[in-house]
Design goal:
Number of strands: 10
Mean pLDDT: 78
Number of domains: 2
CATH topology of the largest domain: ABC transporter transmembrane region fold
Low-confidence stretches: 1-6
Largest sheet: 6 strands, mixed
Oligomer: single chain
Length: 587
């Protein structure tokens, strides 16, 4: 119904079928063949009502009394077997199609620009992967089966009706057409309600994700009741949308039921008149009436499927919208793998701002010599993290260029560029896996010996061995079973294991106590030897040995030099140094 009257849905559904369903056409064809057999069997049962009535009850034919019941049993067995076959085949097609969609969406998100994850909450993206996909799973698996099966049944039963009486068939179909317009209108309303529901569900998932991640803050500030009230408000909005959907979805059945009652009454009047006039036998009439009563069942089911289809199409629209969004940060045509020969980094008049008037860097130029360590210091928002984001091509420069050994980072493949870096960030990212898997995350196939050696250099080996299962211990979501310092050392071990030619250290020792920091700093010193290293640090003690320190202010370089030179020549750096020591003393 919707496919006839709602062209956007038709285009969307055709794309869905062509891209994800047709690849399983063998199972689809088997299921369709079974549906044809099921539909033909149902129509045969309706047709056999004529000899049952005329030959058995009217003409009292004992031969038919023996044969027809057996024939009906055989038809029922065939119908049951074919119905099982079509159900299994079509559910397989629907489930595989939606599983492919889920995999494609996840892979697409993995290759999307990092700005997508900054602009949208993780809860919304999770909702796309779960709620929307589940909606499509139900729609694709059930609607495909229902539409084909019930339409075939309707066609065969309509054939029986036409065989028995063309006049009465025209009357029945004419009344049936009155159901088309209101059902199509209900489908359009259902599409709007489904879109609103899915948007609200995405907001709710995002809200829950924020609250669960920040549960310590919620409890520390005594905001449990506030968050519960806010959640109940969102749940109530979802309830109202669900009830709107239920009212729309429940309306199609009664409409068809009412019109079927009108049709039955009309056929009884018309058919009864024909039987009384002798132009129609009682068997022909009851065969027609049986077929008509049976044909209204698929009509009712298809009408209900129309509203269900709209929910799935609303989810499919969101799915294809996400899938059609191509990343801006991508390999250029002709991009070649990066070969790091020395590891010299050069920023040439680089300008980048996240949004107009927002933080970033402006006309920034500096060099990180090969094998040297350059530290970035400055207040929050000065542009330190932006430099690392641009270097890794999480974002592209808006003006100027960044080169590694003289090669523009935009002229090399993204994979080869990022494989040249090992990153340790202040935002520690660990996964719900074993200690071993987290350390080896950046170097697939790493041996246990290499993992243990990296852990030792990061001063993590001893506390790992003290854990219940050692390196096989599961650390929980985001490493919640570890302390802050332990998480940081696991992250550092990961970077050490990767052994990349360029190191990016963003507050790499920020969560360590003094003793651990000293041990890790010693390990990093060995690792940094003859390796290009870019360091962001608020602890000025961690950058004093850097070959060059860049003092950033407002996205520009306010001063540069060694630690001692900056203390002598830079008032900004000297002030930062004094404030740091005052805070350290106060602590």
């Amino acid at each position: 119904m919707a496919l006839l009257f709602n062209s956007p849905s038709a285009l969307l559904y055709r794309r869905l079928l062509k891209t994800y369903v047709w690849r399983y056409r063998r199972a689809l064809i088997i299921g369709a063949a079974c549906m044809v057999i099921t539909a033909a069997a149902s129509a045969s049962q309706a047709y056999l009502m004529q000899p049952v009535l005329d030959d058995i009850f009217v003409n009292k034919n004992t031969t038919y009394l023996m044969l027809l019941p057996l024939l009906l049993i055989v038809i029922a067995l065939v119908a049951a077997a074919s119905d099982y076959g079509q159900s299994l085949s079509m559910i397989y097609v629907g489930q595989r199609a939606v599983s492919d969609m889920q995999g494609d969406l996840f892979e697409h998100l993995m290759h999307a620009d990092i700005s997508l994850f900054h602009d949208q909450s993780s809860g919304r993206l999770i909702s796309r992967m779960t709620n929307d996909i589940m909606m499509m799973r139900q729609s694709v698996s059930q609607v495909i089966v229902g539409l084909i099966k019930e339409c075939l049944s309707g066609i065969f039963l309509l054939g029986v009706m036409l065989w028995q009486s063309v006049t009465m068939s025209v009357i029945a179909v004419f009344i049936l057409l009155f159901a088309v317009l209101p059902v199509a209108r209900l489908g359009r309303r259902m599409r709007k309600v489904a879109q609103a529901t899915q948007e609200q569900m995405g907001d709710f998932t995002a809200q829950m994700d924020d609250i669960f991640q920040g549960v310590r803050v919620v409890k520390a500030y005594g905001r449990e009741q506030f968050e519960s009230t806010r959640a109940r408000s969102t749940i109530h909005q979802l309830f109202k949308l669900m009830m709107r959907a239920a009212r729309v979805q429940s309306a199609s059945g009664p409409i068809v039921m009412l019109l079927s009652g009108v049709a039955v009454a009309s056929i009884i009047w018309c058919g009864g008149y024909k039987v009384l006039n002798g132009t129609l036998t009682p068997g022909e009439f009851f065969s027609f009436l049986t077929a008509m009563l049976m044909v209204y069942r698929p009509v009712k089911i298809v009408a209900g499927l129309n509203t269900q289809l709209q929910s799935g199409m609303a989810a499919a629209e969101r799915f294809f919208t996400a899938l059609d969004t191509h990343p801006i940060i991508a390999d250029r045509a002709g991009a070649t793998p990066l070969t790091v020969t020395h590891g010299a980094i050069h920023f040439e008049q680089v300008t980048f701002h996240y949004h107009e008037g927002s933080g970033g860097v402006s006309a920034l130029s500096f060099t990180v010599p090969a094998g040297k360590t350059v530290a970035l210091v400055g207040s929050s928002g000065a542009g330190k993290s932006t430099i690392m984001n641009l270097l890794l091509r999480f974002y592209d420069v808006q003006a100027g260029r960044i080169t590694i050994d003289g090669t523009d980072v935009r002229d090399v493949t993204i994979n080869s560029l990022r494989s040249a870096f090992a990153l340790v960030s202040q935002d520690i990212v660990l996964f719900n896996d074993s200690v071993r898997a987290n350390i080896a995350y950046g170097l697939q196939g790493a041996s246990d010996d290499a993992i243990i050696e990296a852990a030792k250099k990061a001063n993590a080996h001893e506390f790992i061995l003290a854990m219940p299962e050692g390196y096989s211990t599961q650390i929980g979501p985001a490493g919640v079973k570890l302390s802050g310092g332990q998480r940081q050392r696991i992250s550092i071990a990961r970077a050490i294991l990767k052994n990349a030619p360029i190191l990016l250290l963003d507050e790499a020792t920020s969560a360590l106590d003094t003793a651990s920091e000293r041990a890790v700093q010693d390990a990093l010193t060995v690792l940094m030897k003859n390796r290009t290293t870019l360091v962001i640090a608020h602890r000025l003690t961690t950058v004093q040995e850097a070959d060059l320190i860049l003092v950033l202010d407002g996205g520009k370089i306010a001063a540069q030099g060694t630690h001692q030179k900056l203390l002598e020549d830079s008032g900004v750096y000297r002030t930062m140094h004094q404030l740091y020591h005052q805070q350290s003393g106060a602590a």
